[in-house]
């Protein structure tokens, strides 16, 4: 590759996100002429796992009431349930029914994970287990360790989101449940991650803590040894692709953080303005009752203030429920990529030598 890494945008200044250069955009004349782009190898990867049988400790609680359904009937039912794109899906996962547990040492929330599948890796067609947040965190760490060349979907933030006082409130728990459900659905739809052994155990094991302890006995020690060896491997010259991606991600995350702060400030000011409008509108209604000649125009002003209040409330709700969550997901994905690119860089750099 003859071109150097593209120049990143400065952290401040009136620059648009649309002006940010792509990290792998070529700067040489040869790359400019050959504009044909090829898709990522991950996108072309077929689901060829027929030769790999996973023997797993499936101890989940079956959710069926009577005899289990046959694979063919279950497949037809699942296909009817989610036949949006005309594709037959063989794995469905949902997160629901959060419950609060109060113990002597701690208080925490668990979520019910319901799995329906026709894959041969599952002993039963349906499972129902309960998991807490730290179990989701364990799953993500295991996926990062076992699939270092794949981007693992991010988890929702572990600590209380800014502005939420009670992490056991219904609003916060429901927001986290939706985020955890989206996290598992993204893994389920992935052609590689959905076949991961740890993901299977997470969905089916009745006692996940026992599996964690079993893995700590041997696998973790081996993994730490490998990580120690690979961690000591220092590159004299990092490939330009990874340097460019690193600069791009740093700039991208900085811009997203700025947008997030501005959006929160706008929402705060909109809420304060909405309170004033709601107090201001009734004044004109009361005034119109005292002024016979001005009653009609004063009532018109009061109605306009009411319409403005309704529109501003809808705008604030849209930004809070639709815009900010998506923006924060981009920030989490950016952090995931920055955390995974160094590991991938080490693997790819060895291929260069």
From TrEMBL:
Residues 89-210 form the PX domain. It is a peripheral membrane protein. GO terms for molecular function: phosphatidylinositol binding. Residues 63-73 have a biased composition (Low complexity). SUPFAM superfamilies: PX domain. GO terms for biological process: autophagy of mitochondrion; endocytic recycling; piecemeal microautophagy of the nucleus; protein transport; reticulophagy. Keywords: Protein transport, Transport. InterPro entries: AH/BAR_dom_sf, PX_dom, PX_dom_sf. Pfam families: PX. One of its GO terms (cellular component) is phagophore assembly site. Residues 1-44, 54-73 are annotated as: Disordered. Gene3D superfamilies: Arfaptin homology (AH) domain/BAR domain, Phox-like domain. It is found in: Early endosome membrane. Heterodimer; heterodimerizes with SNX4. Belongs to the sorting nexin family. This is Sorting nexin-30. It comes from Mustela putorius furo (European domestic ferret).
């Amino acid at each position: 590759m003859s071109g150097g890494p593209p120049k990143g945008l400065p952290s401040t200044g009136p620059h648009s996100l649309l002006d940010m250069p792509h990290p792998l955009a070529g700067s040489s004349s040869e790359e400019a002429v050959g504009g044909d782009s090829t898709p990522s190898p991950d996108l072309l990867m077929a689901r060829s796992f027929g030769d790999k049988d996973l023997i797993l400790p499936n101890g989940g609680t079956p959710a069926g009431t009577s005899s289990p359904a046959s694979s063919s009937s279950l497949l037809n039912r699942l296909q009817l349930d989610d036949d949006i794109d005309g594709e037959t899906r063989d794995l469905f996962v949902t997160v629901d029914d959060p419950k609060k547990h109060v113990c002597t040492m701690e208080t925490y929330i668990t979520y019910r994970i319901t799995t329906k599948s026709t894959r041969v890796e599952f002993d039963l067609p349906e499972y129902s287990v309960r998991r807490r947040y730290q179990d989701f965190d364990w799953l993500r760490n295991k996926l990062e360790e076992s699939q270092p060349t794949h981007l693992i979907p991010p988890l929702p933030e572990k600590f209380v989101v800014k502005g939420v006082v009670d992490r056991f409130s219904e609003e916060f728990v429901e927001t986290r449940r939706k985020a955890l459900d989206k996290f598992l659905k993204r893994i389920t739809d992935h052609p590689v991650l959905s076949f991961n052994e740890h993901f299977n155990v997470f969905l089916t094991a009745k006692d996940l803590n026992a599996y964690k302890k079993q893995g700590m006995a041997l696998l973790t020690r081996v993994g730490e040894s490998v990580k120690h060896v690979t961690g000591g491997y220092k590159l004299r010259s990092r490939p330009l692709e990874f340097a460019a991606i690193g600069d791009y991600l740093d700039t991208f995350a900085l811009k997203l953080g700025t947008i997030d702060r501005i959006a929160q400030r706008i929402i705060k000011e909109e809420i304060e303005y909405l309170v004033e409008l709601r107090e201001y509108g009734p004044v004109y209604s009361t005034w119109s009752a005292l002024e016979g000649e001005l009653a009609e125009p004063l009532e018109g002003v009061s109605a306009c203030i009411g319409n403005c209040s309704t529109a501003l409330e809808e705008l604030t709700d849209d930004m809070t429920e639709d815009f900010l969550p998506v923006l924060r997901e981009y920030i989490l994905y950016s952090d995931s990529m920055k955390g995974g690119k160094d590991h991938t860089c080490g693997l790819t750099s060895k291929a260069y030598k």
